């Protein structure tokens, strides 16, 4: 996907009790009896209010729920759409719901802190891979992507501490494909694995190149993955040179004539690397 970021988290607060103290001024009463003046004073006892109960946290999302989300909503940090029947066309399916770990060195972090968001960004791709099946290479050569959501700041203040991971199928650069049924184990089965595979409208270095599912009209196909060790971005020159031999060999393997063929290599940009794509893709005409 523009292969995505996020926000919202806080702390639960109990309403503090407010104490109202009513002070009655001192009142003097004088009398003529032998005891002399008789002074009496009264002060009302303080009245207190009962602390209000903490609000119930909003209900957590449900694994297996489906939604009709537009692309902009799918890449937003929070979501408020209502679920729809998974048998009807939908664009997003919840593959897992987890709990954020927001305590670091005894301090509770906000839901939109870098630590919490990094945790969710690391967990959801792994949970998606487990859900759709296949191999990591199958997933990287597909149009299936993870998106994730956390509570809003207000929901977090009420005690919500969940995160939600969804599977989406890209139809283009900024468009989601409609799905009927579930993507569960989709990459374990030949038919959906082929339908959801990544293809291109042109060679990856062409001006009009766009990634599309192989079920759509296309002329090139992603055929192999060039993996790099996660860490600091090695630089464009390094990642660009690293995949040449591997992609040429991959292109020769799928070509009708191994002595006369075309191939392409799409290396990760620094922006893509920072979003978690630490690999490139090899392409060939299809």
TrEMBL record:
<dbReference type="InterPro" id="IPR026004">
    <property type="entry name" value="Septum_form"/>
</dbReference>
<protein>
    <submittedName>
        <fullName>Septum formation family protein</fullName>
    </submittedName>
</protein>
<keyword id="KW-0732">Signal</keyword>
<feature type="domain" description="Septum formation-related">
    <location>
        <begin position="64"/>
        <end position="282"/>
    </location>
</feature>
<dbReference type="Pfam" id="PF13845">
    <property type="entry name" value="Septum_form"/>
</dbReference>
<feature type="region of interest" description="Disordered">
    <location>
        <begin position="34"/>
        <end position="64"/>
    </location>
</feature>
<feature type="signal peptide">
    <location>
        <begin position="1"/>
        <end position="30"/>
    </location>
</feature>
<feature type="compositionally biased region" description="Low complexity">
    <location>
        <begin position="43"/>
        <end position="53"/>
    </location>
</feature>
């Amino acid at each position: 996907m523009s292969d995505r970021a996020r926000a919202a988290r806080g702390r639960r607060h109990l309403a503090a009790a407010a104490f109202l103290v009513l002070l009655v001024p001192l009142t003097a009463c004088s009398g003529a009896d032998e005891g002399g003046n008789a002074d009496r004073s009264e002060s009302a006892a303080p009245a207190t209010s009962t602390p209000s109960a903490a609000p119930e946290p909003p209900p957590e999302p449900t694994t297996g729920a489906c939604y009709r989300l537009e692309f902009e909503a799918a890449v937003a940090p929070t979501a408020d759409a209502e679920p729809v029947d998974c048998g009807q066309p939908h664009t997003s399916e919840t593959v897992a719901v987890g709990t954020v770990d927001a305590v670091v060195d005894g301090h509770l972090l906000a839901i939109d802190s870098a630590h919490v968001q990094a945790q969710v960004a690391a967990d959801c791709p792994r949970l998606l891979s487990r859900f759709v099946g296949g191999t990591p290479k199958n997933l990287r050569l597909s149009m299936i992507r993870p998106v994730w959501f956390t509570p809003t700041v207000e929901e977090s203040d009420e005690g919500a501490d969940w995160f939600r991971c969804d599977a989406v199928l890209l139809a283009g650069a900024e468009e989601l494909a409609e799905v009927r049924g579930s993507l569960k184990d989709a990459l374990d089965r030949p038919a959906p694995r082929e339908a959801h595979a990544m293809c291109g409208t042109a060679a990856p270095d062409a001006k009009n190149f766009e990634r599309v599912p192989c079920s759509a009209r296309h002329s090139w196909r992603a055929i192999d993955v060039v993996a790099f060790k996660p860490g600091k971005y090695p630089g464009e020159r390094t990642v660009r040179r690293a995949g040449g031999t591997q992609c040429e060999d991959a292109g020769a393997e799928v070509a009708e004539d191994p002595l006369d063929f075309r191939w392409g290599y799409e290396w990760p940009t620094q922006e893509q690397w920072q979003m978690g794509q630490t690999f490139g893709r090899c392409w060939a005409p299809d």
